[in-house]
């Protein structure tokens, strides 16, 4: 089969399309033919060798994928050949193996694909929706009636967070940096959208909250925005850091005077006991038609290096997936 492998750590150029042996399922395992694999910023950090999880080289990146069951190991009765299934980091806590024409997983780490979605959309459940859910509720303590500001809402996690927050009865303000992004934020259900490429946009967030500020902020780029988030947040507010790519200088007195909670998340810190109900709730929302993964771009498997550059650029407008 064809698979993308990193033979060393470094930039996108270390990713190569290789011919490798087909995976063979052992007891309790299945293999599925990949139809879509999710591309996440964490994949690029792992490729650089700077992530908390450092795989042995060479390795196949990717923890999220959907496809068709093509082989079943001994003693495995949960699935049949031809079943559409998906897997994801939240199900396996394995961030490797999915940038390939065939993917092997334990049968317990795979779920039937909801009939309401396609393969590309199912590849968004493993990181984007679980991250947004974990940030909003487990870490953010989101409650119906509160206002959440999603700072960077047009990407895959951001659009998932909009849908999840509206489903839970929150008022949502989202930011984006382009007209297309702002339109997407509103189309996904946000009550208001602000342009973070324009000076003074946080003043609009203040106006939209009657000068009180949002009770909860989800932050996708803390090294740029954290100090501003602290300024605009409501007294006793919570800021959940989902993404960060460097250092920032903040004034702790702002947090003191407002008694702010600044919380970080990393999905792999969640336990299986937390992720089981989280994934179940997400799938219930999909079945009810309340959650609809947004796909920004589909790219061929051979374009993994380009996808790794694209996922870090502003304006992703939903999930980027590799297709085979």
List the helices and strands and how they pair.
Layout: E1 2-6, E2 15-19, E3 29-39, H1 41-48, E4 65-72, E5 84-87, H2 89-92, E6 102-106, E7 111-112, H3 119-122, H4 125-139, E8 147-151, H5 156-167, E9 171-176, H6 179-187, E10 192-195, H7 201-208, E11 216-219, H8 222-232, E12 238-241, H9 252-258, E13 261-264, H10 272-287, E14 295-300, H11 304-310, E15 319-323
Report on this structure.
This protein is of the alpha/beta class and 324 residues long. The protein has 2 domains: 2-124 and 293-323, Quinone Oxidoreductase, Chain A, domain 1; 128-267, Rossmann fold. It contains 11 helices and 15 strands. It has helices spanning 41-48, 89-92, 119-122, 125-139, 156-167, 179-187, 201-208, 222-232, 252-258, 272-287, 304-310, and strands at residues 2-6, 15-19, 29-39, 65-72, 84-87, 102-106, 111-112, 147-151, 171-176, 192-195, 216-219, 238-241, 261-264, 295-300, 319-323. The strands form 3 sheets. Strands 3, 4, 5, 6, 7, 14 and 15 form a 7-stranded mixed sheet that branches. Helix 4 packs across helix 5 (156-167) and helix 4 packs across helix 10 (272-287). The radius of gyration is 20 Å and the shape is globular. The mean pLDDT is 96.
């Amino acid at each position: 089969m064809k698979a993308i492998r990193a033979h060393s750590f470094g930039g996108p150029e270390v990713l190569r399309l290789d011919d490798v042996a087909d995976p063979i399922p052992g007891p309790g395992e299945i293999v599925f033919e990949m139809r879509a694999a999710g591309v996440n910023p964490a994949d690029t950090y792992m490729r650089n060798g700077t992530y908390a999880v450092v795989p042995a080289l060479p390795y196949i990146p990717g923890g999220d994928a959907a496809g068709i069951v093509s082989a079943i190991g001994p003693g495995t009765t949960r699935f049949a050949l031809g079943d559409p299934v998906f897997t994801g980091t939240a199900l396996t806590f394995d961030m490797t193996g999915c940038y390939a024409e065939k993917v092997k997983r334990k049968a317990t780490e795979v779920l039937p694909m909801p009939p309401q979605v396609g393969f590309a959309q199912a590849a968004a459940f493993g990181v984007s929706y679980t991250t947004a859910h974990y940030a909003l509720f487990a870490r953010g303590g989101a409650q119906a009636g509160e206002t959440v500001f999603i700072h960077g809402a047009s990407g895959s996690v951001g659009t998932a967070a909009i849908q999840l927050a509206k489903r839970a009865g929150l008022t949502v303000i989202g930011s984006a940096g382009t007209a297309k992004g702002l339109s997407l934020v509103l189309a996904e259900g946000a009550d208001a959208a602000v342009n973070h490429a324009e000076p003074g946009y946080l003043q609009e967030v203040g106006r939209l909250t009657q000068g009180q500020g949002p009770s909860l902020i989800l932050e996708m780029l803390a090294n740029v925005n954290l100090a501003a988030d602290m300024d605009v947040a409501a007294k006793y507010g919570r800021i959940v850091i989902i993404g960060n790519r460097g250092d920032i200088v903040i004034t702790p007195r702002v947090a003191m005077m407002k008694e702010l909670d600044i919380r970080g998340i990393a999905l792999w810190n969640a336990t299986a006991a937390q992720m089981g109900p989280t994934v179940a709730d997400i799938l219930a929302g999909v079945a009810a038609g309340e959650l609809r993964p947004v796909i920004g771009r589909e790219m061929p498997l051979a374009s993994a290096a380009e996808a790794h550059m694209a996922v870090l650029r502003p304006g992703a407008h939903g999930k980027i997936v590799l297709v085979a």
